[in-house]
TrEMBL record, chains A, B:
GO terms for molecular function: DNA binding. It comes from Labedaea rhizosphaerae. It comes from the Bacteria. Keywords: DNA-binding. Gene3D superfamilies: Tetracycline Repressor, domain 2. Pfam families: TetR_N. Residues 32-51 bind DNA. Residues 9-69 form the HTH tetR-type domain. PROSITE patterns: HTH_TETR_2. InterPro entries: Homeodomain-like_sf, HTH-type_Tx_Regulator, HTH_TetR. This is TetR family transcriptional regulator.
Length: 184, 184
DNA sequence: GGCAGAACCGAACAGAGTGTTCAGCATCGG
DNA sequence: CCGATGCTGAACACTCTGTTCGGTTCTGCC
């Protein structure tokens, strides 16, 4: 049976939606398991049969997203700007989720995971010649700017579209990376 | 009386040092008030006469630093790379504190404050002509890279000196900023 | 339609951590 | 030396967590 019991789907979905709404309202740290229970109208014991704790619920929600995201990010060429653009597009298509997961309101847990995912991806595809600056630092640079811009967009309610954000990213990031990878 | 009671100094200092050590050992989130009390050998009630909660203790420690930091950052010219360099130098002079406050182990509280401080500073001194990209985004870019590099240095035990970090920063960040501030 | 099994419920419980109170002791500065 | 201030430690109420379990409801399947 590849598809779960309907009740399970309902419960998990309800818990996840309640969590997102509550994160948006008062921030991940201030959300309590009891809050989620009340909002989703789910029994306490039921919650703990599905998730070990609040963080597990968050990560389950994140994993559902990140599986799709990995697909899109994996298909990009070895251009350091591509992952960022794919991520921006992806975020714009799922604004509600990103509003809860990234930005000020989301916990640092998701930020850490996102950062690690991006870092690994960039490390894998940035195996270039002798850069002036260690590849590790270049990757750190790309990751920080990507997540920084994304967070900015999220916290400002996605004021422009994904293409605009990608253009800004290219303008700001590419010159530096180019200068470092091709020593003058 | 400009100087406090010696007992007060001793207590506050002990609490702060205990907090830093514990953050370094197991990360801010996992540090409990009781841990700090035991480590500093201070009574529970004493703690709460000094600080409202764990976060207040952290912020008091941070404020002591940030006062000095503001001084150094305030004196820089309107070159967007200067604040970063000053911050790097400052961090290298107080590695133990930054190991606790920034990096993976430190809570996101300090990160938020540092980010806000940097953002405000850069916003104030980056009042330039019509940039291709909103100044807000440029500032976000600079802030993210500065904190990103700093976090990297902290988490890797300050592998190079401040000048090296500043040079890497300039190489990576300046080309993009220049390209954006002076439309081709 | 009916049945076995799975999911859900809710109440109760133990445990950890928080923040407050207070009476008594110690230490400080003058 | 003394009045004021700070520290102590134990006790307490509170919130949140994570677990347990007997009883109820729903689902998939025959």
């Amino acid at each position: 049976m590849v598809q779960q019991d309907r009740r399970v789907r309902r419960t998990r979905r309800g818990l996840q939606e309640a969590l997102f709404a509550l994160i948006f309202e008062k921030g991940y740290d201030r959300v309590t398991v009891q809050d989620v229970l009340d909002r989703a109208d789910v029994g306490r014991s039921t919650f703990y049969t599905h998730f070990r704790d609040k963080e597990a619920l968050l990560l389950a929600a994140f994993d559902a997203l990140s599986e799709d995201l990995r697909g899109e990010l994996g298909a990009v060429a070895s251009d350091p700007a591509r992952p960022a653009e794919a991520l921006f597009r992806f975020a714009y298509e799922r604004q509600p989720a990103f509003r809860a997961l990234c930005g000020k309101q989301g916990g640092e847990v998701v930020q850490r995971h996102l950062r690690r995912m991006l870092t690994e991806l960039l490390m894998a595809q940035l195996c270039l010649g002798k850069p002036v600056v260690p590849a590790e630092v270049v990757v750190e640079f790309c990751t920080s700017t990507t997540l920084g811009l994304l967070g900015w967009a999220v916290d400002n309610g996605f004021p422009h579209d994904a293409a605009w954000l990608a253009a800004a990213y290219r303008r700001l990031v590419e010159p530096g990376v180019r200068a470092v990878l091709r020593p003058a």
